[in-house]
Amino acid sequence: MSDSAASVRPKRRYPRAAVHATAQLQVGRRRIAGELGELSRGGGFVAGIPPIEPGTEVRGWILLPPENVPIAIRMRALYNRPDGTGVAFTRGSADAFEKISRAVDRSNLLLLQLLFSLTAVQKDAHALTRLARGAGLPGDLAPDELAELVKRSLERFKL
What we know:
Elements: H1 3-8, E1 16-27, E2 30-40, E3 43-47, E4 57-63, E5 70-81, E6 84-91, H2 94-121, H3 125-134, H4 143-155
Antiparallel strand pairs: 1-2, 1-4, 2-3, 3-6, 4-5, 5-6
């Protein structure tokens, strides 16, 4: 995606994070499983599953590390790509949404900690830019400016 396209994209409702989790979806009488590689309180992207008609509501379960205990959640298919399906979470318990939020925060915390460390030693501007954008931060900052912004972002975790 180009910088201009990224700048006009609307702000996301919830923070998102890259995760390594499993999602199981009940589609009709079939139960399918895929990798949940991107997650937010509002939905995610399930890779490795066949296309699901956009708008279709399905029962689902998310297995998040380290517990890997199934979290029941209702999902609606939003779009399909060759590598999987984007879903929105439509119904779930307060506990389910809290667990999802904690997993997103945990993943983002680890990414920010890594990014802060790398601003001191990483001289590859492209790598820093990619990581910064992955953390939802601007990719066009000098390493010292990026480190300061990451420090401020880490403060919200009250470590």
